[in-house]
Design brief:
The chain is of the alpha+beta class and 403 residues long. Helices cover 18% and strands 36% of the residues. The chain has helices at residues 53-56, 64-73, 85-99, 130-136, 207-210, 248-258, 262-276, 301-306; strands spanning 115-122, 142-148, 155-163, 167-177, 182-194, 201-202, 215-223, 229-234, 239-243, 286-293, 312-316, 319-327, 330-342, 345-357, 360-364, 368-377, 381-385, 391-396. The strands form two sheets. The chain has an eight-stranded antiparallel barrel with strand order 1-2-3-4-5-7-8-9. A hairpin with a 5-residue loop joins strand 7 (215-223) and strand 8. Helix 2 runs antiparallel to helix 3 (85-99) and helix 6 (248-258) runs antiparallel to helix 7. The longest helix is centred in the N-terminal third of the chain and has 15 residues, at 85-99. It is elongated, with a radius of gyration of 23 Å. The two termini are 40 Å apart. 37% of the residues are buried.
């Protein structure tokens, strides 16, 4: 839904990175590991307390066209706010394909539309209200829409969940069904629910005085037969993609954004991959941004950069390059080689380092050698165990696919 200053529309960007000490003292990097990420002889050993999370998680199944949309959403930050033109084009194309297919007919008449939906993507986030732009475009928060039409008090509510410890903001609207696709709504109340307060804090907007400005409509243009995927368009021209259930890669990216449950999400993804695909993975070429690492303690910024513990990795033509922004226009670069030495194992040798500033470079004499184990790898996400047995999650930045 989209209304001006007073709405909380359904969509975030916060990319947490490890905190490094920007000191160039040549100390040995220390790492405190948990059992989950202690060195293993094989990626098949990765588990949480010996349990298989795949058996504990209810898996969601999408049709091939639905999978195309989910695939296009992987890696988009800010629920569309930070999407590249190519990413937006991929999502729009997948949305149009689904809208042209036969989803659930007359979705507003189906019980599948009811329940809590998580916002995965929205267009035009910058044209929404100030609070909408503040919260919807921040991945640290979760955004939901609740739809309940078959009650004595039909309602559609938009919810910003700050965290389990803090609470949420809920903006509610009375709702009615106009036809098989359209829901009419009028915002009438909103409040913050903080876990540390025994009462709700009213959201200071006089909905009753806004008249028609508090009204709107929401069309559901596609509802999956499973009831797990929905595409809606609002009266302000905004497109929303929502899911009731998310797939493992989405859960991992969400865990990284919120900073909770990352290890469990990694275990789930790796375990599912091993269960469904026994083929040996390959180190794919491309540009990869580090999103998360299990490293918890370090003393040397330079060691971090030289061992791939920060920044971007570029893999191409048998070479690997670490690239780290230092200051505006100044970068640390280190180039090396990789050789496959075993099942999903690569030997990395980095020995060509320099500080780059514009067209100039200042060479640095240093060398780093370590083994890199591929735990999971596809066209969007890569999980590895590298230097000092640290586990990394990288996100593909260039969007290209390797054949």
């Amino acid at each position: 839904m989209a209304l001006k200053v007073y709405t909380t529309n359904l969509g975030l960007q916060w990319n947490p990175t490890p905190t490094f000490s920007p000191r160039f003292s040549p100390r040995t990097l220390r790492y405190k590991s948990r059992k989950l990420f202690e060195c293993s002889r094989s990626s098949r050993d990765v588990s949480v307390n010996g349990s298989n999370l795949v058996d504990e998680q209810q898996q969601v199944s999408f049709t091939e066209p639905e999978n195309q949309l989910v695939e296009a959403l992987i890696g988009i930050q800010g629920r569309g706010r930070s999407a590249s033109p190519q990413q937006l084009s991929d999502v729009e194309r997948a949305v149009q394909v689904l809208e042209g297919l036969e989803g659930v007919p007359e979705p507003t008449s189906s019980t599948l539309i009811e329940g809590r939906w998580q916002l995965m993507f929205t267009t035009r986030p910058r044209t929404a209200s100030p609070i909408q732009r503040t919260f919807v475009g921040v991945d640290f928060f979760s955004v939901f829409q609740e739809v309940y039409l078959r009650t004595n008090d039909p309602r559609v509510s938009n919810i910003i969940k700050f965290s389990d410890a803090i609470g949420e903001l809920k903006v509610e609207a009375s709702a009615s069904i106009k036809d098989g696709k359209r829901i009419l709504f009028q915002f009438d109340r909103a409040a913050f629910s903080f876990r540390f307060l025994p009462f709700k804090v009213p959201y200071p907007v006089p909905f009753r005085l806004l008249g028609d400005e508090a009204k709107g409509w929401l069309d559901t243009t596609y509802l999956s037969s499973s009831g797990d995927l929905r595409i809606s368009r609002g009266n302000k021209g905004t497109t929303f993609v929502l899911q009731k259930k998310t797939e493992p890669r989405q859960r991992l990216l969400s865990a990284i954004s919120t900073g909770t449950g990352v290890r469990e999400a990694i275990d789930e993804l790796i375990s599912l991959h091993q269960k469904l695909n026994r083929d040996e993975t390959q180190l794919q070429e491309g540009e990869w941004q580090m999103l998360w690492s299990s490293q918890v303690e370090t003393d040397s910024w330079l060691e971090n950069a030289a061992n791939g513990l920060m920044g971007i990795q570029i893999v191409k033509n048998g070479q690997i390059k670490f690239l780290v922004d230092i200051l505006l226009g100044v970068r640390f670069s280190m180039i090396g080689r990789f050789v496959k030495t075993g099942n999903n194992i690569y030997e990395i040798t980095m020995d060509d380092a320099a500080i780059l500033g514009g067209p100039f470079g200042y060479p640095i004499e240093m060398e780093s050698k370590f083994n890199l184990e591929l735990l999971y790898d596809d066209d969007k996400i890569r999980i590895t165990r590298g230097y000092s047995n640290i586990v990394f999650v990288h996100l593909r930045m260039d969007g290209s696919k390797q054949k």
